[in-house]
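Researcher: Sequence recovery benchmark, item below. Answer with residues only.
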């Protein structure tokens, strides 16, 4: 007797594949790192993410990262000891993943970003139309707020919060 195919399971799998915005992994490209190298202010164009580009990114004063084709300036503090002072590769990959969905996907959606750091993901979500509560330690909030205010054209989509109120 032939085995029955589980059509529900097959349809669910097909549906998940249709919902995915990726046919193949998205490349993180067209990034610029700006900062002082050997006493000279330079701009370095990066075409992908690697250990070498991470060093270049973490020593830059600002990173220009394209969101929906427009370069967005994210300020960093390259001489701080805090991990909240840099744009991390994971944030860039997440932004590209979010960006791959249709433009209407995130409009009105509510997010809480814990440990937002420089705020790249929060900035992207605000540009996509989402409402965000961005949180981090008190010492990281001024840089986070600066990046959000500089990059987000619409006010009222962001709230900032200290992860530990008694700091």
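Model:
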């Amino acid at each position: 007797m032939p085995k029955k195919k589980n059509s529900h399971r097959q349809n669910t799998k097909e549906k998940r594949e249709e919902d995915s915005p990726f046919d193949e992994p998205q490349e993180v490209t067209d990034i610029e790192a700006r900062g002082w190298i050997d006493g000279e202010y330079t701009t370095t164009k990066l075409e992908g993410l690697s250990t070498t580009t991470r060093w270049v990114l973490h020593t830059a004063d600002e990173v220009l990262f394209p969101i929906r084709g427009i370069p967005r300036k994210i300020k960093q503090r390259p001489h701080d000891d805090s991990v909240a002072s840099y744009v991390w590769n994971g944030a860039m990959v997440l932004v590209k993943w979010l960006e791959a969905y249709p433009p209407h996907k995130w409009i009105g959606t509510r997010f809480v970003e814990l440990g937002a750091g420089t705020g790249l993901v929060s900035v992207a979500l605000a540009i996509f139309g989402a409402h965000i509560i961005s949180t981090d330690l008190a010492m990281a909030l001024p840089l986070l707020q600066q990046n959000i205010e500089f990059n987000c054209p619409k006010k009222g989509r962001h709230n900032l919060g200290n992860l530990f109120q008694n700091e």
